[in-house]
Amino acid sequence: MNVFNVHSNRAPVGAKVENIWYHAGKFFNAAIDKASLENERNAIWLRTPKGTDITCVQIAGLIARRILCNVKQGDNLDCGQRFGFIRFGSRVDVYLPLDVRISVVLGEKVYGGASILAMLATDA
Question: 36 — phi, psi (to 5°)?
Answer without folding.
Answer: -60, -30
